[in-house]
Amino acid sequence: MNNNTGFIIYISLVATIGGFLFGFDSGVINGTVDGLQQAFNSESVGTGFNVSSMLLGCAIGAFFAGRLADVYGRRVLLIIASVLFVISAWGSGIATSSLEFVIYRVLGGLAVGGASVMAPAYISEVAPASYRGRLTTIQQFAIIAGLFMAFVSNYVLAQAAGLSTEVLWLDYEAWRWMFWIELIPATLFFIMLMFIPESPRFLVASGKTDVAQSVLIKLYGEDAGKQKMKEIEQSLAADHKPRLADLIDSKSGKIKRLVWVGIGLATFQQLVGINVVFYYGAVLWQAAGFEESQALLINIISGAVSLAALIITVMFVDKTGRKPLLKWGSIGMAATLAVMVLAFSNATIKSTGDLELGDWGVVALVAANAYVFFFNMSWGPVMWVMLGEMFPNQMRGSGLAVSGLVQWIANFSITMTFTMLLASIGLAGAYGLYTCAAIVSVFFVIYFVHETKGKELEEM
Fold first, then answer.
1. What is the DSSP string of 234-268?
2. Which fold would CATH assign to domain 5-196+239-459?
3. CA distances from 42 to 88, 99, 433 (A)
4. Which of 33, 341, 344, 381 is 20 to 30 A from 202, comparing alpha carbons?
5. Is the pLDDT of residue 141 over 60?
6. Run of H or E residues at 349
7. What's the rounded Cα separation, in Å, for the pair 122 and 331?
8. Are 245 and 394 in contact (CB under 8 A)?
């Protein structure tokens, strides 16, 4: 296919800035937990809600973004998300009460939820099947890059101030500046979205065939663009406008099997506990006996390991396929989580109530980073790749809406309960639950997930 590869890569990279902000917004909270506790006088449950409140917005944003994108377009929803990112970044840092903070975090959650489903959907709808997986994987690369930069930013700002709770510049504490740093990429995202086209598949579904054809020609060249136009029109010819009811089998009246697979992928990605590492990394390692500065530095190491794992995914996702990566990722996560459980089980409790890992500290640290590696070479990027491409054109928006909603509800549940699990059954108990989920996910992939490598979206 004679396509304009450079242009396709460019507009895909613009879309992935949403992924970067998704990661940054998710990771920045990691270094602000002590500041939130001090500023708002919150206990473990209150802090858990302050940290996880964004995820409520994520669930709502993911669900409605998928549906609204079928009406107004993928690009329009990404623009709205960029505006919400700016508002949330500013408000989270300036907040003077827990309620005010939660409101701004929920607005940020709407943006994250919308970007999480729209960026991979947009990329999958503009990229050729031959390298669609690699481009969609860049979305996860951007997410991890955002997390990594948030960890680096948090570490640098905390070091500059002495502690995250100390005043840094203009009489504001370092933890507030951690949120304000996000204003830079959020503003850039808004500006660059003005220079990318709407998804051609959305344009065809909306009856804007002339505009769709011009976009397709620009993407794939004259002949291939017109041919792709015919294929999209044929795939939609016998269908009505996309709607939520498309997820129901008209004959049996039950939810289609494919939808359940999407829900399963979205749920297991969270049940393995990955975002506990990302959201509560500093808390986790401080509970394991490390100082705040050491814990923040460990976060940076985990971010670097994640980026290395994603390079492997980019290399192999369109060669070996999606299913093998998911299967071996699950096996690797189950094994490394089990080692972490063993390490935490052998910890002693000091008189202060803190854990003392001793020699097991190194084992836990290596296992945790190996776990992060396996997640980011498999479920991290591949789940989003599959959700963006596994649904037929007719039900892509609705399928993403439901899967995205479930993904963020699972994320919220895991994040909200971690501090409570930490207080009740400890790190070993919490990670034992995540280990069980990883084991079950192996069988889910083997028996329910089907390969989508190399198939055009019109074949799904």
1. HHHHT--S--GGGGB-TTT-SB-HHHHHHHHHHHH
2. Growth Hormone; Chain: A; (1.20.1250)
3. 21, 12, 26
4. 381
5. yes
6. strand 348-349
7. 31
8. no
Domain range list for the chain = 5-196+239-459
Least Cα distance to 415 among 109, 92, 119, 63 occurs for 109
- For residues 90 and 71, the answer to whether their CB atoms sit within 8 Å is no
Mean pLDDT estimate for the chain: 77
Q: What is the 3-state secondary structure (H, E, C) of 83-122?
A: HHHHHHHHHHHHCCCHHHHHHHHHHHHHHHHHHHHHHHHH
Q: Is the pLDDT of residue 84 over 60?
A: yes
CB under 8 A, 24+ apart: contacts of 283-287: 283/33, 283/419, 283/422, 284/427, 286/354, 287/354, 287/355, 287/422, 287/427
Tokens linked to 20: 């970067």
Contact by Cβ (8 Å): 415, 55:
yes
In 342-371, which positions are buried (b, 16+ CB within 10 angstroms) versus exposed (e)?
A: ebbeebeeeeeeebebeebbebbbebbbbb
**Six token digits for residue 316:** 């192999």
From CA 276, how far away is CA 13, in angstroms rounded?
Answer: 28
Q: How many CB atoms lie within 10 A of CB 240?
A: 10
Q: How far apart are CA 25 and CA 19, in angstroms?
A: 10
Phi, psi for residue 348 in degrees, rounded to 5 = -105, 155
pLDDT over threshold 80, residue 54: no
Task: Say whether pLDDT at 48 is over 70.
Answer: no
Distance in angstroms (rounded) separating the CA atoms of residues 298 and 296:
5
Is 336 a residue whose pLDDT tops 90? yes
As a whole number, mean pLDDT of residues 55-83 equals 82
Is the Cα dihedral 170, 176, 181, 186 positive or negative? Answer: negative
**Mean pLDDT computed over 355-378:** 80
pLDDT, tens digit (0-9, with 9 covering 90-100), for 382-440: 887 788 778 876 677 778 778 878 887 887 788 777 777 777 777 778 889 999 999 99
Q: Which of 196-205, 235-244, 269-278 has the lowest mean pLDDT?
A: 235-244
Q: Would you state the torsion angle of the CA atoms of residues 133, 334, 301, 298, taken in this order, to the nearest 10 degrees?
A: 150
Alpha carbons 166 and 366: distance in angstroms, whole number: 31
317-327 pLDDT tens trace? 777 888 888 99
Are the C-beta atoms of 202 and 122 separated by less than 8 Å?
no
- Residue 311, pLDDT above cutoff 90: no
